[in-house]
Design a protein that fits this description.
The complex is a heterodimer of chains A (325) and B (126). Chain A is of the alpha+beta class. In chain A, 48% of the residues lie in helices and 23% in strands. Chain A has helices at residues 6-9, 59-123, 131-161, 174-191, 210-226, 258-261, 272-276, 285-295, and strands at residues 18-25, 31-42, 48-57, 170-173, 195-199, 205-208, 233-241, 244-251, 299-305, 309-317. In chain B, α1 (15-26) packs across α5 and α2 runs parallel beside α3. Chain B has 126 residues and is α/β, with parallel strands linked by helices. Chain B contains five helices and five strands, in the order βαβαβαβαβα. Chains A and B meet through α2 and α3 of A and α1 of B.
Chain lengths: 325, 126
């Protein structure tokens, strides 16, 4: 088609006005988007006698449209990125849970062999051991224990994450739990030259998971002993206050600075003092304690003064409502 | 002639666990028959009718739970006591094991001494 005015009217036929968008080029070369309405004119005899064209400057509208399209696109991009990220996070979460449980499982079998053959060697059946050999095998055994604890802690946390921590609820005598925990912690306390004290007067029987409550108190007591210098004491109290069951573990240990107290229950968090003093642990103990407390619909709090000691205070409902964490 | 030793069939895909269990049981007065997977264990159970079986739960080809179910379903082997070993720790697995017909259930890590006393206890009940 020839350039010139003809292009504007080329497609205009008949009576109906025709509207199209054009880009005008000004003499200075700048461009102007317009909406041009062209109407064919006819004389009274019906012969075509010209055209009327009305052009509107639509540069503002074009800008707004472009802006709107750009924002919509950005929104679509963000939504897609978020959806992709979400899928990826879910995959990662599933991989993590799967990994933890497979690794834990694959660790238990070799650990069974290590522990089993150490037992047999130390039992003396394959032949007598020197005192030193027996001592070294004792170290192997202790470290197997340590690995097993890490494995079961990891499994526990994975279970909490996947929502498959299920409480086996039955009546639990808290005085009995406290006595068992104290009894089991005696060897550790003796090693650290820490005295364990128990006050279980008025400890109620509550509805809960006995094994988990034992694990809860055991973790708190083991922590207290580990963070208490020789000659110190750890006091365990099981009782009731205002119709709520209370477990409390108070130590005369090194304490926790207030800025660290808020992080205590975070997974893998370890207090600076623990790392400095090379006190062993994975940073999962208190995470597990908190998960057990929450599964029982209870509450836990901590009070501590550096150099004076730390008290963990757990309140548990006497009656159990819903065991799922 | 003294009476023959009680025959215990063990099945585990881990050779070290097989050796551990064999060592403990042979020295505790049992004859031990070893299978490396569930299929071999099923075949040996049918051929030799052991006094007791110790099966790992996670085995290739045929797992310990399914193996237990099959032995229970077969009149020739339905009365042989079975102890399951597992590295998994979920309560649901234990329930599944008992539901399949196992007599006892041991979690890894178990001590060889504990295994010996469980074997003795289960045989004593039968």
């Amino acid at each position: 088609m020839e350039p010139g005015f003809g292009v504007f009217v080329a497609s205009t036929r008949g009576d109906a006005p025709e509207t199209r968008e054009w880009t005008y080029v000004r003499k200075d070369g700048t461009r102007l988007p317009v909406e041009l309405t062209v109407t064919a004119m006819t004389d009274p005899e019906g012969r075509s006698c010209g055209f009327i064209g009305i052009a509107w400057d639509i540069s503002e509208r074009k800008r707004a449209e472009a802006e709107r399209e750009r924002m919509l696109q950005a929104e679509r991009d963000a939504a897609r990125a978020l959806a992709e990220q979400n899928v990826r996070l879910q995959e990662l979460d599933a991989i993590k849970s799967e990994l933890v449980s497979v690794v834990s499982h694959e660790l238990r079998t070799p650990l069974t062999s290590i522990r089993g053959f150490v037992d047999i060697l130390r039992g003396g059946e394959p032949g007598p051991l020197t005192e030193e050999q027996d001592h070294f095998l004792g170290i192997v055994d202790r470290n197997v224990d340590r690995l097993l604890r890490v494995v079961s802690d990891l499994l526990f946390v994975a279970r909490v994450d996947s929502g498959t921590l299920i409480l086996e609820v039955a009546p639990v005598d808290l005085a009995q739990v406290a006595r068992e925990v104290i009894e089991a912690a005696q060897p550790l306390a003796r090693n650290h030259a820490v005295t364990l004290e128990l006050d279980a007067a008025g400890a109620p029987t509550i509805e809960g998971d006995g094994d988990r409550l034992n694990q809860l108190l055991d973790n708190l007591v083991a922590n207290a002993v580990k963070f208490t210098p020789a000659g110190g004491r750890v006091r365990v109290r099981a009782g009731a206050e205002n119709g709520t069951a209370v477990l409390e573990v108070a130590d005369s240990g090194i304490g926790i600075p207030s800025e660290e107290q808020g992080h205590l229950f975070e997974r893998f968090y370890r207090a600076a003092s623990a790392t400095e003093r090379a006190i062993p642990g994975t940073g999962l103990g208190l995470t597990i304690v908190k998960a057990i407390v929450e599964a029982h619909r209870g509450e836990i709090s901590v009070e501590s003064e550096p150099g004076r000691g730390t008290t963990f205070h757990v309140e548990l409902p006497v009656e159990h409502e819903d065991g799922r964490s | 002639m003294s009476s023959p030793l009680p025959l215990v069939l063990i099945a585990d895909d881990d050779p070290d666990i097989r050796e551990l269990v064999t060592y403990r049981l042979e020295r505790s007065g049992y004859e031990v028959l070893v299978a490396v997977d569930g299929q071999e264990a099923e075949q040996l159970a049918l051929e030799r009718t052991p006094s007791l079986c110790v099966f790992d739960v996670m085995m290739p080809k045929l797992d310990g739970i399914e193996l237990t179910r099959r032995l229970r379903a077969n009149p020739a082997t339905s009365r042989i006591p079975i102890i399951l070993l597992t590295a998994r720790a979920q309560e649901a697995d234990v329930e599944q094991g008992f539901a399949a017909g196992a007599d006892d259930y041991m979690r890894k890590p178990f001590s060889p001494e504990e295994l010996r006393s469980r074997v003795q206890a289960v045989l004593g009940r039968h």
